[in-house]
Amino acid sequence: MLFWVIAAVLTLGASLAVLLPLAGGARGRDSQNAHDLEVYRDQLGEIEGDLERGLIQAAEAEQARAEIGRRIIRLGSHEAAADASVAVSKTVRVFSVVAVLAVPLLSWGIYARLGSPDVPPQPLAERLAKNPAESSVDELVARAEAHLVKNPSDGRGWDVLAPIYLRIGRFADAVTAYRNAIRLEGATAARQIGLGEAMVNGAGGVVSAEAQSVFEAALKLEADNPKANFYLALALSQEGRKEEAIATLQKVQATLPADSPWRRAVEQALASLDGNPAPSAGGPSQEDMAAASSLSEEQRGAMIETMVASLDEKLKQNPRDTEGWMRLIRSYVVLGKTDEARAALRRGITVFGADSPEAKQFTAFAGTLGLTATE
């Protein structure tokens, strides 16, 4: 109710500020004309009095009366012109008044229908003070950011916020947060790897020299960390050092437990590097490979083209096939169709979402082939 009272007072004040000048213009003009006519009448009376007392001659009195008469005539012509302009401007004033009154009425009507006047205020401070279990991710991030603005030396706060930034795809912010956490809390393998991963994702899957140094620093703290070794192998592959990349991946594979989430990514990376990819849905079987070896180069190329097209079509019908997407990307690269390979990479990322584990796996896998989604 208070909202509507305040809105009504403000609307009334704004309307009066426009309406009063429109209504007062004609009244002011009429008052000025009446005053001038009264002055001229007084002057005529004074001339008659001076003539009777002999202060002026009859000829002088006649000239003075004639001058005042001309002024009265001019005033009359001005009034006639003013009346004409008033007749013209009256319509304008009417439309102006209607417009001034229509604006608040229409605004109130639209707001009452589309707005939410009854929703209680939700200031940022109150939203940030909510129970974390009842808050959205955006609200939690905003709460952490507000805290760190006031307490930029809170290393623990940066340490908590950095992986959240990485998960939601704010890679540049994740790099800043990891750097602050390392500076304030000290370097750990997890923080170094998180920093490196944020750099790689921010660069579209390219492992830069700076990111390599970060992963190498992580290995000094945890020598057998599979993620750091995987990204370093990816860097070697992107530099064309294929044998070193394979050796690094084989070393990682030998130390991984059977249930490690990194085992599948390492196997796929090795398959793409050594030229013997593991079979996947829609890909050629061992029998297909044997049959292809007996064909001519032209026939073999046509057979591969057909199988790749078949795989592409199956992925359109069943897009949730992770291995199928990696197989398709590699097949296009082998055929020299880099544009189609990049398109397949982007399609696969779109299916699972840019922040999904599958999308990161696709990006890392494509990187081993010298391919990035941002090219």
UniProtKB/TrEMBL annotation:
Repeat listed as a keyword: yes
Domain Cytochrome c-type biogenesis protein H TPR as annotated: residue spans: 145-261
Pfam families: TPR_CcmH_CycH
Ranges where the record places region Disordered: 273-293
Name the record gives this protein: C-type cytochrome biogenesis protein CcmI
PANTHER family: CYTOCHROME C-TYPE BIOGENESIS PROTEIN CCMH (PTHR47870:SF1)
Name of the gene: ccmI
Top-level taxon in the UniProt lineage: Bacteria
Subcellular location as annotated: Cell envelope
InterPro entries per record: C-type_cytochrome_biogenesis, Cyt_c_biogenesis_CcmI, TPR-like_helical_dom_sf, TPR_CcmH_CycH, TPR_rpt
Primary location class: other
Keywords: Cytochrome c-type biogenesis, Repeat, TPR repeat
